[in-house]
Amino acid sequence: MCECGVPMAKLVQLYRILNLLSLDVASGAVVSALFFARLMNVHVRPFGFVCLGLTVWIIYTADHLFDVWTIKIPASTARHKFHQDNFKLLRIVLLTMITVDLILTVFIETPVFHWGLGLTGIVCLYFIVQSKLKFVKEFVGALLYSAGILLPSWPVAEKPLSPLILLLMGQFLITALINLILFSWFDYQRDLQDRRESLVTFLGHRIGKFLLIGLFLVQGSITVYLRMHSQDPVVVMVFAMMNLVLVFIFWESNFFSLDDRYRYAGDAVFFFPLIYLVA
Predict the structure, then answer these.
(1) How many CB atoms lie under 10 A from the CB of residue 132?
(2) What is the C-alpha to C-alpha distance for residues 226 and 149, in angstroms, rounded to an integer?
(3) Which listed residue, of 49, 150, 236, 246, carries a Cα 20 to 30 Å from 170's Cα?
(4) Please, is 232 exposed, middle or buried when counting C-beta atoms within 10 Å of its C-beta (0-12, 13-18, 19+)?
(5) Residue 196, burial from CB neighbour count under 10 angstroms (0-12, 13-18, 19+)
(6) Residues near 184 by Cβ (< 8 Å), separated by ≥ 6?
(7) What is the pTM of this model?
């Protein structure tokens, strides 16, 4: 039993480090992008997915570094404390990855590059105004994340997207939004302590809870509709499983609040599209 426990403990520790660095988020974004490329029957150059992974990591890391830069006291969350302790090193790595990402954009498709420029402008604008509009951080984050997921494939899709695929895009957007609001809901007390603003600190913990319940009900309704009209039950199952995990995290909040378990499990839901890719 000890022999099994030691490797498992090491794997858990490794995943915690990957999560602190947002590398699992970037990997999940690539998996989700491959999922939508398959749905749209679009061939995407590998450079497009590499740029997406790098860009997601850059945005998340820059956002965390900006957060800790504004905190004048030791951060209360493990993620922000990690970025606070390694601020200088992560800043150097961030600038390096930005340079690599810019170089790799030369090799992606022209339509994707043009759409990417527009999305980059929106991201830059977000970072400029986010200090005054932090209560919309989750909405903007979900929109940017979802747009990034679709960026490698949608601009080069040869056929108009069907209503069902558009609905799946909307369901993915809501899933990303639930993920971010759920994290803010768990971080409510620590955000107040560190004077970080979020949608939940703006609305209050109780209203945030009802907002999550409402979004879960919306997702359930969409899943039932898709089950009745979609000809691909695996796709419906993937989204159902993603949201059921988020519901379970919310329902068992006492368990998942320990040691940031909610964050590890919540970020892992974006690997569920692998089921469709290997099916």
Answers:
(1) 8
(2) 21
(3) 49
(4) middle
(5) buried
(6) 138, 191, 198, 199, 200, 201, 208
(7) 0.87
